[in-house]
Design goal:
The complex is a heterodimer.
Chain A lengths: L3 E4 L2 E5 L4 E7 L6 E7 L6 E7 L4 E4 L2 E6 L4 E6 L8 E9 L2 E4 L3 E6 L1
Chain B lengths: L4 E3 L2 E4 L5 E6 L6 E8 L3 E9 L2 E5 L6 E5 L5 E5 L8 E8 L7 E2 L3 E5 L1
Parallel strand pairs in B: 2-11
Antiparallel strand pairs in B: 1-3, 3-8, 4-5, 4-9, 5-6, 7-8, 9-10, 9-11
The chains are: A mainly beta, B mainly beta.
Chain lengths: 110, 112
């Protein structure tokens, strides 16, 4: 089955700097890769997603890149703000099953 | 549109008891997935329902079961509770299978 590895497990950045979180998946048949943000005590919220026929997608300060050959995808957050502090989860879907990475705790220091 | 709702939000049970959690999807969504979230194991897939049929199942023991009703609302049941079942149980709804999933607030279950 699919396995998703996420790195780093924790990331501290200074406000205004960029943050990058990387995920690697094992099943080359996976075709959909969402990213979720979960603030303390709240539900995971979809922040951006990408499908396997696209290499990059941007939404304001957030971007996701996908390298199908290497089977990895990354979340890029530019100009980080304190409100970006949260746990970020990547996921990969093959068929009906969505498999999540272990999560990255992002701390933005002001 | 109202988001995904889950009831109850918090629950305390003792070992050996059983529990039923409920999930109401976003209006128009027909697929409901359930996940268990724990600090040690992260987000783990339990099962997915679409049109009242279980379409997919994760690697959990048979004590974990679920069902979906004709209005797409879903319930999950855990029988013979164990301490290790303490977790946040999240459901997520999507319009159909292989569509974007939107999460509910979760039910936090504590087993004593």
């Amino acid at each position: 089955g699919e396995n998703v590895e996420q790195h780093p497990s924790t990331l501290s950045v200074q406000e205004g700097d960029s943050a990058v979180i990387k995920c690697t998946y094992s099943d080359s048949a996976s075709n959909y890769f969402p990213w979720y943000k979960q603030e303390l005590g709240k539900r995971p919220q979809l922040i951006i997603d990408i499908r396997s026929n696209v290499g990059e997608k941007k939404d304001q300060r957030i971007a996701v890149t996908l390298n199908k050959t290497a089977k990895h995808f990354s979340l890029h957050i530019t100009e980080t703000q304190p409100e970006d502090s949260a746990v970020y989860f990547c996921a990969a879907r093959r068929g009906n099953k969505l498999v999540f990475g272990a999560g990255t705790i992002l701390r933005v220091k002001s | 549109k109202a988001g995904v709702t889950q009831t109850p939000r918090y629950l305390i049970k003792t070992r050996g008891q059983q529990v039923t959690l409920s999930c109401s999807p976003i209006s128009g969504h027909r697929s409901v997935s359930w996940y268990q979230q724990t600090p040690g194991q992260g987000l783990q897939f339990l099962f997915e329902y679409f049109s009242e049929t279980q379409r997919n199942k994760g690697n959990f023991p048979g004590r974990f079961s679920g069902r979906q009703f004709s209005n797409s609302r879903s319930e999950m049941n855990v029988s013979t509770l164990e301490l290790g079942d303490s977790a946040l149980y999240l459901c997520a709804s999507s319009f159909g299978l292989q569509e974007t999933q939107y999460f509910g607030p979760g039910t936090r279950l504590l087993v004593l």
